[in-house]
Amino acid sequence: MKYMTDMIYSTGRRKESIAKVWVKNGTGQFFVNKKSLKDYFKDNALRMIINQPLEVSKKLDSIDIKVTVLGGGMSGQAGAIKHGIARALTKIDPNTKEVLKKNGFLTRDSRTVERKKYGRAKARRSFQFSKR
Fold it and tell me: What CA–CA distance (Å, rounded) separates 77 from 86?
């Protein structure tokens, strides 16, 4: 799928992942980093997470999607793609905003990894105590 001017662009974020999403009306093609969705995400649960906004808005087979995602792990990338798709769907059809917002797809999941503190083994874990 080529970059075209009739495509709607949006960005989705989750943890350390950033997804650049291009959406246009079409036949249901889905590419992630130039691979098909099934080739990039082997886990069925992650594919289900990604398809949630499309299923809720009833546009699963009527939209072509191209995604470039980078950073983080597979779970974070799936969440970023879901967020980006939901934001793009509201630009294509403003009527879907209400149902997407009600299901929580337009809200960015702000949970990230807590930083490590000095004097600690990890973010909160102390070093092992030795009595002697």
Answer: 14
Block residue for tokens 């105590």: 129
Rounded Cα gap, residues 128 and 45, in angstroms: 37
Amino acid letter, 82 = K
Q: Which residues of the chain have pLDDT under 50?
A: 1-4
Beta carbons of 40 and 32 less than 8 angstroms apart: yes
Strand order in the sheet with 17-25: 8-14, 17-25, 63-70, 30-32, 35-36
Beta bridge partners of 65: 23, 30
Which pLDDT score, from 0 to 100, does residue 5 have? 58
Residues 121-132 as b or e (16 or more Cβ within 10 Å = b): eeeeeeeeeeee
